[in-house]
Amino acid sequence: MERERRKAKLLKGSAWWKNCLGRGVCAYCGKRVHPTALTMDHKIPIVRGGTSSRSNCVPACAECNQNKQNLPAEVWRTLLAQR
Ligand SMILES: [Zn+2]
Fold first, then answer.
1. What residues have their beta carbon closer than 5 A to ion ligand 1?
2. pLDDT single digits (tens) 7-25
3. Which helix or strand (DSSP H or E) is residue 60 part of?
4. In the chain, what are the domain boundaries?
5. What would be the CATH architecture of the domain defined by 2-81?
6. Which residues of the chain have pLDDT under 70?
7. Contact predicate 18/57, CB 8 Å
């Protein structure tokens, strides 16, 4: 788990991630937010065995990141849709 957290830190410094943030859109709710307000979210949380790979990391707004917590992305999307 520590290893994946370290990898996430590295990924945050990558050009790929900066490009993701630059779009300024939350991957879950689709809200437009300022790139500095986006946070890295693991679709499959590290505590659930997710990895810090490009395919598992998406930009999320603070609200989604806070409310999603350790839910898998699919579960969070379903909850969002029911609101
Ligand atoms: Zn959001």
1. 26, 28-29, 61, 64
2. 999 999 999 999 999 999 9
3. strand 57-61
4. 2-81
5. Orthogonal Bundle (1.10)
6. none
7. no
